[in-house]
Amino acid sequence: MLRRIRTRYANSRAGYLWAIVEPICWVFILKFGIRGAADHQPPIGTSYEVFYANGVIVARTWRTTAQVVARTVRRPKRSALTAIHRLDAAYAAWILELTTGAVAMTIVLAALGLFGFDAAPADPLTCFVAFGAMALFALAFGLVLSLILTLAPGLTHFQHIFMLAIFMSSGFHMIIDRVPPRIREIFLWNPVLHCVEWFREGFYAGYVCASLDRSYLLTVTMLFLAIGLVGERALRNHNPQRKR
């Protein structure tokens, strides 16, 4: 973990600031680009800024964490670190990305609170549990993604498009219960959406999402985690660099 902290942004330590800057950029894009002046009340809460911020940061943390885990597992082992398995490095990267996301969440919400927005979670424990569920799913998804890309390297070119599609359908900019039924049925297949809605149930007092399915999220997470770990073990000695 210490090595990764030093090398994550080797050229500029200020790269960690992007974890804070990107959610703020998303808030402004959604606030002024989609909602315009947005002088009416948000779907829940008292401000669109807080509504967008908590959804974006949860979804963004999942995306960056899953990508880093997948990339770390597929990365060839360094000769200087032969005693450290790639899966150990993936766990370290996983913890670091989650910590970065949690710190970004705290800083952004605290900054919004200083500007007069109601940015305090109503039930911090529920938010913590929802964030933990998202974290576990990010690890599981990253392991499965690494397995898929190892078996089919050609799909690497479509990886970012696929991740962006999941990110954009995670519901960070909307309330899923208010989406037309046909579109809702499609979006509900996205486990990240359930992470976001679960987090919002803890963040906003009295908010209940009728479409939230915690059992579905946890089932998919456990299934992906099992497939990912078994696949990693089966392909542990696989080295794509040997293939020409």
Q: What can you see in these coordinates?
A:
- The radius of gyration is 19 Å and the shape is globular.
- Helix content is 65%, strand content 0%.
- The protein has helices spanning 2-7, 18-34, 48-74, 86-114, 124-151, 159-168, 181-187, 191-203, 214-234.
- The protein is mostly helical and 244 residues long.
Short structural summary:
By secondary structure, this protein is mainly alpha-helical. Helix content is 65%, strand content 0%.
Write down the overall mean pLDDT. 84
Topology as a string of helices (H) and strands (E): HHHHHHHHH
Structural class: mainly alpha
Radius of gyration based on Cα positions? 19 Å
- Compute the separation of the termini in Å: 32 Å
Largest sheet: none
Overall shape: it is globular
The portion of residues assigned to helices is 55-70%
Amount of beta strand: under 5%
Q: Compute the number of helices.
A: 9
Number of strands: 0
Q: Name the poorly predicted regions.
A: none
Secondary structure: elements and pairs:
Layout: H1 2-7, H2 18-34, H3 48-74, H4 86-114, H5 124-151, H6 159-168, H7 181-187, H8 191-203, H9 214-234
